[in-house]
User: What shape does this take?
Amino acid sequence: GIQVEQSPPDLILQEGANSTLRCNFSDSVNNLQWFHQNPWGQLINLFYIPSGTKQNGRLSATTVATERYSLLYISSSQTTDSGVYFCAVNNNAGNMLTFGGGTRLMVKP
Amino acid sequence: DTAVSQTPKYLVTQMGNDKSIKCEQNLGHDTMYWYKQDSKKFLKIMFSYNNKELIINETVPNRFSPKSPDKAHLNLHINSLELGDSAVYFCASSQDAFNQPQHFGDGTRLSIL
Assistant: This one.
């Protein structure tokens, strides 16, 4: 099956800093999503981005499908950005997502 | 108002018991899913269910069985619970099974004593 690797695995930021999270995948994909799992365990859908670039407030994402990677940018980080960020992809029947291992982000005040 | 809702939020039970987790979505979606998140936060697909077609991840034991009374509901029934079944189970839905974004419920934390 498809492999999904995220980097870095852990990231500590000072409030106000910018960061880039990376997701590499081993095969072509039909679906790519970024999620934020907050400290209460909820999975929040950030972006549906199988290709191209999208922006939502301080967050933006870019997927270069031909090179098999996606980037999530967080600007002016806030303590509420803390949690685990997951990249998930699909390249199979049934739209079933394969998740990466996540990036654990801690933003310090 | 909740788009994808799961009940219960927490479930604590003894090894060997049978339990069910319910999931309902009010988004009008055709496709629903179950995922398992282990203690290391790793998320893995268990099932995809679309228009009565069930796609099963081959690694899921047959003690786990999804049941869909209608397209708005996909319940997860687990027989003969084992210690290794302790995890957070997430339900999700998408408009259809063709590369649509998925929306997740808040999860059910299952603890086996």
Q: What stands out?
A: The CA atoms of residues 90 and 96 of chain A lie 6 Å apart.
